[in-house]
Amino acid sequence: MAVLAVGLTACPTDDVSVGSAGGGGGGDSTGTESDSATMGSGPGTATDVADGTGTGATDSMSATDSMSATDSMSATDSMSATDSMSATDSMSATDSMGSSTDSMGSSTDSEVCGDDVAEGSEVCDGLDLGGQDCVMQGFDRGTLGCQDDCMAFDPSSCIVYGGDCCANNGSPGCDDAGCTAAVCAVDPDCCNLGWDAMCAAAALAEPLCYGVGGSCPDCGNGSIEAPEACDGADLGGQDCVSQGFDLGPLGCQGDCLAFDTSSCIAYAGDCCADNGSPGCDDAGCTAAVCAANSDCCNLGWDATCAAAALAEPLCYGVGGSCPDCGNGSIEAPEACDGADLGGADCISEGFDGGTLGCAPDCSGLDVTNCANEGFGDCVNNPPAVACLPEEQCITDLAMPPTQGVCADVTCVDASDCPLAPPGGTAPVTCTDVTGEGINECILACFLPGQICPPGMFCALGIACAWPAVP
């Protein structure tokens, strides 16, 4: 090995045995070996002698060497008694261990706050925040900074949302995170600039802002507050019927924004058949039938309800299997339908003539325009026999009368008068023929071509009458 200078001056007289020239660990070499090493720059030399046994036990340097006790190594430190390396091969104390800096490596560089690199005990350093931000530090938004000494974050520019969500609170956001997020998603200025009247109005319309306190509506307090449609039992006077249903209890949705109509019932089904559901698909028919039998609405529309509907005029023409009054064809239980009178006329109905009709609901015949013959002969017959109930016997003033006729003295127009006896052309007229201010029904004969029925004559050239028979 190369000889290493150690900067020490050895004493010229120091001859020391330093161990075997053989391998380490007390080798068995029998030869001796002398290694000469120049020690530093001084005039002296040091001679290391290995004895024949290779077990030198003393250091190659004497205590008088120029190396201090601190700098030098003992024989044990420099090389073990069994080291096979000679003093010439071994390093000096300085080379073997090196300076503390060379042997152990340099110490850790000092932390420098302000170099934008968080290191060592630093929490942060300038822009290096270790991935942290205002939200992670418990705030809502803003810009996180670092303290000048790098030992803590600077949250002075972080923002905590606060203030009444449903009022102009002036600060960014409001005191409920969910409400703030919902409103600011639509209008970012509410979080970036300030929570103004527009933000408050948006909160009032946002379900996530209900019940968050302040002036926001509190759904569940049993009192309607805008924009609630209802709140618990407070339905604002509404019920299932006002909501377009027929029956049932109205409720309120959990968010108070709408009514709960899940228990409301809409009547449905054929009114004239057993449909199984409460009511039927016509409100008028349902009401009429249920007025007589409430079970038809409360329990179900069975065969009994259907039979009642078939007999109820309000159920005619409502569709399904109910009769369709107005289609011109008689269907049970219709008595007639339009012109279909089933062969009936006024005479079959006990009148002398006229025009038979059908009731609008097809429930019966209309005899309004049916009439009996009037203008009977009450001069030659008893008035009770000759005249209709609504007529009186009108005669001349002769005693006994020489002429007369049954007449209705309560008419308003000709339609109120009875039929004329057949065979004449004299028209039925309602007029004040006597000048007494009272209208009478007459057979007018004062115009040419107006001929009285057979057996009657034109009395005074005005009205047809019956002459007395001698």
Notes on the structure:
The protein has helices at about 75-80, 95, 100-105, 175-185, 190, 195-205, 285-290, 295-300, 305-310, 385, and strands at about 15, 35-40, 45-50, 140, 145, 155, 160, 250, 260, 355-360, 365-370, 390-395, 405, 430, 440-445, 455-460, 465. The chain is of the alpha+beta class and about 475 residues long. Among the domains are: about 1-100, no CATH class; about 275-320, no CATH class; about 330-370, no CATH class; about 385-465, no CATH class. Strands 12-13-17-16 form a four-stranded antiparallel β-sheet, with no helix packed on it. A hairpin with a 6-residue loop joins β10 (about 355-360) and β11. The protein is rod-shaped and about 160 Å long.
Q: Helix and strand layout, with pairings?
A:
Elements (H helix, E strand, L loop, with lengths): L14 E3 L15 E6 L6 E6 L24 H4 L14 H5 L2 H5 L36 E2 L2 E2 L6 E2 L3 E2 L17 H10 L2 H4 L4 H8 L46 E2 L6 E2 L22 H10 L2 H4 L4 H8 L42 E6 L6 E7 L11 H4 L5 E4 L7 E5 L20 E4 L8 E4 L13 E3 L3 E5 L3
Parallel strand pairs: 1-3
Antiparallel strand pairs: 2-3, 4-7, 5-6, 8-9, 10-11, 12-13, 13-17, 14-15, 16-17
Task: Throw out a few tags for this protein.
single chain; 470 residues; alpha+beta; three-stranded mixed beta sheet; rod-shaped; disordered N terminus
